[in-house]
Design brief:
Blueprint: H1 8-18, H2 35-53, H3 57-63, E1 66-67, E2 73-74, H4 79-88, H5 107-120, H6 122-141, H7 144-155, E3 159-164, E4 180-183, E5 189-199, E6 208-217, E7 228-233, E8 235-237, E9 243-246, E10 249-254, E11 265-278, H8 284-320, H9 344-376, H10 380-415, H11 427-437, H12 444-455, H13 462-477, H14 485-508, H15 513-549, H16 554-571, H17 574-583
Parallel strand pairs: 3-6, 4-6
Antiparallel strand pairs: 1-2, 4-5, 5-11, 6-7, 7-11, 8-9, 10-11
């Protein structure tokens, strides 16, 4: 049976000491998250994750969801009670506005406990995760009437939400979608069409399911400029908020998936279902992207979450599994063999996993803080800077952390050797579950194209230049500190490679767009290397200061110095390889004719 323990101590170190979140107590909700409240919420989240959600992870994988002849879907045993405890604890609305029943606490805190929940049971947590994305879209784009009608029940968890984009013939290219919306004349629309891969599309844990559906109003322009977004509930709801008769929405089938079996991934059929326009007519893509960007950060969190859970199990196994002797002499001579944790190659895997996880956690929480500043600050300049960084980092967080999360799951499975390949130890589930995060909410190649094709040039490159300056200033400020030199020198080299890659794109991508496409994936990972390295720089700086002052957890802080140095010595040098591949251009990549493959 796999194990899991929420990394509360590490989360507190990042939020409280590295990010110094109390500096932002002028932002709405931050003053309510005092240090005592912060620790209490993280502690309660850890208990829910470890004691309620985690024991059901394997149950969900083995049982899966079941569709019945009437189109209804039942979730695995135990999911109902666990979801009920999640809702009763107020976790759904942790960072939602108070006026609709939320607690208005920082998104930073929502992200912190979200890691624990997703590590414990990714499939189950997708139900509230999709709901929170739908909540964000309605808050941003809904009318006052729509907010009052839909949000309170969604925030309390009585109703859940989904997003419906993909169609059988249409994935990333949403301009090809065929779902249509016909005005009825009374303010509603009749929605018809089919959507596929709809996570949490049908289940029996909530009284109603609020689908956000992309469709084209009759007569609307072709392509993405003619797409609108609609609220389409499973059951119709009257003006008083009372749930009524079934709408024209049904689950045609459940997808047979590689992983996340505990989540109902549905083919959804809409047959003149009653729907309501949200946002502007033909402005659906903008409205949906509010939900998608929230979801992309959530998916990046899933990559981190699976990586952390897989790492913890790999460490436990490596401490117990006896095989061979240490190259430097027996470490446990009273036993017939040493535990495999003594072997350098096992250490390579464990240190790599830990170095990525701890910096990934810091990066995700730093990005969540940017979201809080962008949405809660009264300072227009601060909002702009934070919004720029949030937009820039979203594809990096999603693409890099999910790629690394899958890599870590595979690496952890490898620590188990043959035992990792059988279902008994649970490592296979981590690998299978992690794989989807690289695909949905825009496959990672799309994230890379978004970074290179859109985010770099946005506002004249304002965001990327701000990021370069922040990292560069950090290196310069600590250049004369001998204790920081092993970290800042490597970070500066990575930053130089990233800046060189950015310059190469500026010089070579405009006249030859294939150069941008060919470089994008390596560029995203090069960016991620530097961003994670910057997080290590900040964590190490904080750890050194606390050690010098005799503060904090000495063992943890000293471990930070070692793991951070491992990152700089063994992982950061990959920046040179990424730069070399980027600089090679697209000629060989695009050199063969399509029929030659």
């Amino acid at each position: 049976m796999p194990i899991y323990q929420a990394p509360v101590r590490d989360t507190l170190f990042v939020i409280r000491d590295v990010l110094n979140y109390q500096r932002y107590d002028n932002l709405a909700g931050f003053a309510d998250a005092s240090p005592d409240i912060l620790e209490a919420i993280l502690g309660e989240g850890a208990k829910l994750a470890e004691n309620v959600l985690h024991p059901l992870n394997r149950v969900g994988d083995e049982e899966g969801c079941k569709r019945h002849d009437d189109g209804s879907v039942t979730v695995p045993k135990g999911f109902h009670e666990a979801y009920k405890q999640y809702c009763e604890g107020g976790w759904m609305g942790l960072s939602a506005p108070e006026e609709f029943g939320g607690q208005n606490l920082p998104y930073l805190l929502h992200s912190a406990v979200g890691e624990y929940f997703s590590s414990a049971n990714m499939a189950l947590m997708m139900y509230p995760g999709l709901t929170q994305g739908a909540i964000a879209a309605i808050i941003t784009h809904g009318t006052d009437e729509q907010k009052q009608k839909w949000l309170p029940r969604m925030i309390e968890g009585t109703w859940t939400g989904t997003m419906n984009l993909t169609e059988p013939h249409c994935g990333t290219d949403l301009g090809l979608l065929r779902s249509k919306a016909v005005p009825t004349g009374n303010g509603s629309y009749k929605i018809s069409g089919q959507k596929i891969f709809i996570s949490a599309g049908e289940h029996d844990m909530s009284e109603n399911i609020v689908h956000l559906v992309l469709a084209r109003i009759e007569g609307a322009p072709e392509g993405v400029k003619g797409i609108s977004l609609f609220i389409v509930p499973k059951y119709k709801v009257d003006d008083a908020g009372t749930v009524g008769e079934a709408n024209g929405v049904s689950c045609g089938s459940l997808e047979e998936k590689m992983g996340i079996h505990g989540n109902s991934t549905c083919v959804m059929n809409y047959d003149e279902a009653e729907g309501f326009l949200i946002g502007a007519e033909n402005g659906g893509l903008k409205a949906m992207f509010t939900m998608m960007n929230e979801a992309r950060l959530g998916v990046g969190l899933q990559g981190l979450s699976i990586g952390e859970a897989a790492y913890q199990n790999a460490v436990a196994y490596a401490r117990e599994r006896l095989q061979g002797r240490s190259l430097t002499g027996a470490k446990e001579p009273e036993k017939k063999a040493d535990p495999i944790i003594v072997h350098p190659d096992i250490r390579r895997k464990l240190m790599t996993m830990r170095a990525i996880n701890e910096s990934g956690r810091a990066l995700l929480l730093w990005t969540a803080l940017q979201s809080d500043i962008a949405h809660r600050s009264d300072d227009e300049n601060a909002r702009q800077i934070a919004d720029d960084l949030l937009a820039l980092m979203t594809p990096v967080v999603k693409g890099v952390l999910t790629d690394k999360g899958f890599d870590i799951a595979v690496m952890a499975q490898q620590v188990f050797g043959g035992h990792g390949y059988i279902e008994e130890h649970g490592m296979s589930q981590f690998v299978r579950d992690a794989r989807i995060a690289m695909i949905y909410e825009g496959a990672n190649g799309i994230q890379a194209l978004d970074l290179v094709g859109r985010k770099l040039a946005l506002n004249g490159g304002r965001a990327v230049q701000a990021f370069f300056k922040e990292v560069g200033d950090f290196c310069e400020e600590n250049r004369s500190d001998e204790n920081m030199a092993p970290y800042t020198k490597s970070l500066k080299k990575g930053l130089n490679d990233l800046q060189a890659a950015t310059m190469w794109l500026m010089q070579n991508a405009m006249q030859k767009p294939d150069n941008a496409g060919a470089a994008s994936y390596d560029y995203m990972h090069l960016f991620g290397l530097v961003a994670l390295g910057y997080m290590w720089g900040r964590m190490v700086k904080t750890a050194q200061a606390q050690l010098a002052a005799g503060e904090g957890d000495k063992d943890m802080l000293e471990q930070k110095l070692v793991v951070g140095r491992f990152y700089m010595e063994r992982i950061m040098p990959e920046s040179a390889a990424h730069l070399a591949r980027i600089s090679s251009g697209s000629d060989t990549m695009m050199g063969l004719a399509a029929e030659a493959f």
